[in-house]
Amino acid sequence: xxxxxxxxxxxxxxxxxxxxxxxxxxxxxxxxxxxxxxxKVLDAIEELGYHPNAVARGLASKKTTTxxxxxxxxxxxxYSELARGIDDVANMYHxxxxxxxxxxxxxxxxxxxxNLASKQVDGIIFMGNELDREVLNKITSADAPVVLAGSxxxxxxxxxxxxxxVDAVDEAVTMMIKNGHERVALVTGPMSHAINKLHRLxxxxxxxxxxxxxxxxxxxxxxxxxxxxxxxxAEKILDSSANAVVAYDDEVALGIMxxxxxxxxxxxxxxEIITANNTKFAIVTRPQLTSIRQPKYDIGAVSMxxxxxxxxxxxxxxxxxxxxxxxxxxxxxxx
Length: 335
Description:
The chain folds into three domains: 9-52, lambda repressor-like DNA-binding domains (434 Repressor (Amino-terminal Domain), Orthogonal Bundle); 66-163 and 296-324, 3-Layer(aba) Sandwich (Rossmann fold), CATH 3.40.50; 165-293, Response regulator (Rossmann fold, 3-Layer(aba) Sandwich), CATH 3.40.50. The chain contains 13 helices and twelve strands. The chain has helices spanning 9-16, 20-27, 35-48, 54-61, 77-92, 106-118, 133-141, 165-178, 194-210, 227-239, 250-262, 281-284, 296-311, and strands spanning 66-71, 96-101, 123-126, 146-149, 160-162, 184-188, 220-222, 244-247, 272-275, 290-293, 320-322, 326-328. α5 (77-92) crosses α13 (296-311). The model has no long low-confidence stretch (mean pLDDT 90).
């Protein structure tokens, strides 16, 4: 007796008395099969426990029904929430997801793109704060469509889904200024990254200009994306005489807040903080962090939906999608 789970396409064809091509058409969803035959094939597949080989199906249909996701840090809450949106929509459209972690290292990002391409994925979603030139060249030469999720392509060559980072930082800094602060610090990632230099910094400068406050480079700080970096940069922020800060990452903001509290500062009476990612870190703290709310799940979901259209050669009305943001007012700001 045929062992269930080890059946092949030949076993299914023999059980039903049809050709291998007919079984293949049923497996691949081809409508050119009579309903009665389709039902018999599906019943045989269920009875025998046949599991079609995805690679073999891909060779026949030129599709693997697999997409690759390149992530800087799988443990980071911001990227994991984006990935959840991607995965849910991928499942809806019957795609499997391959996740790769790169630690935002351009060498590893290039390797990840190469590995995914070798697996003949149907499409790729790329996350990260910066597209290194070599990585961008590798992506654009990949034989698969690519969508950026929460990532910025300075020249707009690749489809992407984001919020308007200029407007978001502008709104946050303007809120601080209205609360009476003229020395508002900005903490970002490296200025070599387009998302910081061309978006976050421009939003910061725009808010200052509207308030007739001169830009002071001594209030601009660069920190790595983690809690310890926030603790380290906080001392410099305090020395700059800033009494408010907008930080690009929740862990960084949390490090800044705890340092200020350790120095005897009352939050928000003595020092106000707005963070940018609105992950769970923003609400498990006391006081809770006021934050720019990015629709992280939606960014992931919309990027995956865009990728499905590209993979199916469907028309796309807008390739540079910007979703709305809000500011969640909590305990680290007065208003």
